Every structure is written in structure tokens, then in C-alpha cells.
Sequence to fold (171 residues):
Amino acid sequence: MKSIYILFFWILFSCSSVRVFTDHDSGVDFSKYKTYAYFKPGIDKVEISDLDKRRILKAIDFQLLGKSMMKSEIPDLLISINTTAKEKIYINNMNYGFWGWNPWFWGPNFNSISSKTEGTLYIDLIDAKTKQLVWQGKGKGGISEYMKNRDEQIGSFVAEILQNYPPEVEM
Fold:
């Protein structure tokens, strides 16, 4: 029975491919923000393909529309994005050494090496009047330039991040 619970939690956490962190200025009334526009200078600096930029912006539009926010020429919020990527290398050493079982004792080591790229997407919401950062969402997860269904994958990534916007009112 215990192994069933372990298997369930392993499946649950392995399917959760995006880890999300959000932060906000607790002194800001987020209910006043009804419109937004993209902060072009910030978005132009992002070093990803223009196709992926458009996918991210389209996903942000979709999520914010669901939160009753509209694009505007005179916005309440400016939205900027940033990305980072880090290659992680995993080494699985199969040599059980002197105290463990090894049929060759001093024989060959069986190592497997694999790598995975972990990407981070930052979504910054900036008050258009004060030019101060008021909310930031960060999502980390495995990425691949060869992944299928890029629109869907990026949409899910953005949805996970913006799920926490607007922040709950603290009392």
C-alpha cells in the first residue's frame, strides 16, 4: 500500500513540469489595473526566437483576457518578459565500489551521462505611471527546442505563472 502512495506522488510531481514563484508589492491595490501594454524595449532584449516571443505574448494576452484585462494605448500596467536557460548535466555512476557489489571488482565503471536544459521565464508587471515593478512571476521547467506542440507547452508555462495574478488580498 505504501508503494502505491509513493508511485502516485512520483507521477504527480514528475508531471508538474513548471515550478512557479511569484512576488508582489504588498502596498499596491491590484484591482485598479484594468489595461496593459507590452514594454517593447524589455521584450526586444530577450534572446529567444521571435516565434517563441510571439507565443509567450499570445499566451499572456489569453491569460489576461481571462482576468478581464484589456490591451490599451494608455495602459495601467506595462508587461516585460525575460528568459534564462541553464544546461544541467546528470551523471549516474554505476560503480558500486569496494564495499558494494561489483562483479569486476576493479573493472570498468558504467556511467551514464545525460543533460537537460532548464529554462526560466520571468513575467514582470510594471506600474505604467510610477514605472515601478509591482508583480513578478517566475516559472522554471525543462525545455527543448525540439519539443512538439510549442504553442500548447508555452501556453501552459505562462498559465502556471499567471495563475497567481492578481495576488490574493492580504488581511
Remarks:
- The first helix runs from residue 2 to 15.
- The chain is about 30% helix and 35% strand.
